[in-house]
Design goal:
Helix content is about 75%, strand content about 0%. It is an all-alpha fold. It is globular and about 40 Å long. The N and C termini lie far apart (about 35 Å).
Length: about 90
């Protein structure tokens, strides 16, 4: 695993742990996504809903690619890390 994927993976684990603590489960980000899917009008109630939903699904996909694929090339990018860290911060501040 290269450094950027390692940095992303660490940020993802922190966010996943936080979400898991909120929902009382192991797969916190997946549960967060499920909760969003169960609130169909959430995009009317929360700013950035659609963007957050799309990005959460994307970072979960990136995490799965890193965890299950062996690749010599970076799978994640700086934007993935920035979103993950920012989302963590937003949860902590609300």
């Amino acid at each position: 695993m290269n450094q950027i994927d390692n940095d992303f993976f660490e940020a993802y684990k922190c966010l996943d742990k936080l979400c898991g603590e909120i929902f009382g489960c192991r797969n916190g980000i997946s549960e967060y996504i499920t909760q969003m899917e169960n609130l169909p009008r959430g995009h009317r109630l929360v700013s950035n809903w659609d963007s957050d939903y799309k990005n959460l699904k994307h970072i979960r996909w990136v995490r799965n690619q890193i965890a299950h694929e062996s690749s010599c090339c970076a799978i994640s990018n700086r934007e993935d890390i920035e979103f993950t860290e920012l989302f963590y911060t937003r949860i902590m501040n609300k």
